[in-house]
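Much of what follows relies on a compact textual record of a protein's fold. A record is reproduced here so that you can trace the correspondence yourselves:

. . .
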Amino acid sequence: MDIQNVTVAGGGVLGSQIALQSAYKGFAVTLWLRSEGSIERTRPKLERLRGIYKQTLEALKTDPSAFCRGLADSPDVPADQIDALIAKVDEAFDSLVLTTDKAQAFGGADLVIEAIAEVIDEKEAFYSSIADMLPDRAILCTNSSTLLPSALMGFTGRPDRFLALHFANNIWKNNTAEVMGTAETSPAAYEAVVAFARAIGMIPLELKKEQPGYLLNSMLVPFLNAAEALLANDVADVETIDKAWMLGTGAPLGPFRILDIVGLVTAYNIVAASPAAQEPGSTAARIAALLKARIDEGKTGINAGEGFYKYQ
C-alpha cells in the first residue's frame, strides 16, 4: 500500500506533533479540525513545535547531546546538512493544510490518523461521519491512549484497514510508534502502517495482541494514577511528590511535569471514564475533580502555559 496523503484528525498535543513530523518527513499532510476556533488554537501549537525543531537542530551544530532521533539520522550531521534540515522544517510547516472541510480532508487520504478526545462516543460519531468519504484504499488508525481498536472498529466500516498507531509525547525525540491491530486487521494494512511509522522517523513497536494501554501506557498510566492519588488524598503536594520520584530514581521529570506534557484533558478523560470515578468520595472521583478544576481554569498543561506548573 502506497501512503502519500496523510490526514490527521485533531490538533491537540499529539495531533499537532504527528502532523508536523509527517510533513517534515515528506508526506502531504492535512490537519482536520472541528471548527475555525480549533484551527486558531492549533496554529500556536504548530508554531511552537516549529521553533523546537529548528532550535534543536541548530543546537546540534555544536552540541551532539541535542540529537533527536526523529529529526536527524545521527548526532554527527555536518553543519550544511543541518541547515538543509532546518529549511525542511519551514517547508513542512508551510505545507500543512488546516481545514474544517471533511470532504477536503478525507476524500483523498491514503492514511487517516485519528487523534481526537479519548471519549468513545466522540470517536464513534467521528468514524461514522467519514466512513462514506474515505477512498476504499485508505487505512484508518487511532492514536487512542487506552481504548482498544476492537472496541472502535465496528464504527469504521473498514475493520480490515483499521488499527492503532500510538505515539509517545515529544515524538521528535521519544520516537516510538506502537502498532496494534485486531483479529480483523489485514496483514497488508498492518505492515503498511509499520512502514509508515518507520518512514516518519519512528521506531515501530509491534504488539502481538491487543492490550489496554498498549506497552507504554500499561506502565505509565498506573504510575501517573499513583501520583494523582497521593495528591488527591492530600498525602503531599505536587512539588514534593515530583521530588520524591526524581531524587529517588534519577528521572529528569516527575509525574506532574509528565502530566503537564500529556495534557490534563487527556488525563481527565481517562480517569473520568473509569467505573471507580462514578463512586462519590472515591480516590478516582477526587482525582477527576482536581483535574477538572484546573481544566476549568484553563490550566490544561504545557501548551496552555500552565498546568500543575507555570511555563514561559
In short: The CA atoms of residues 160 and 186 lie 5 Å apart. The domain at 219-304 is CATH 1.10.1040.10 (N-(1-d-carboxylethyl)-l-norvaline Dehydrogenase; domain 2). The mean pLDDT is 96. Strands lie at 5-9, 28-32, 97-99, 111-114, 139-142, 162-167, 176-180, 203-206.
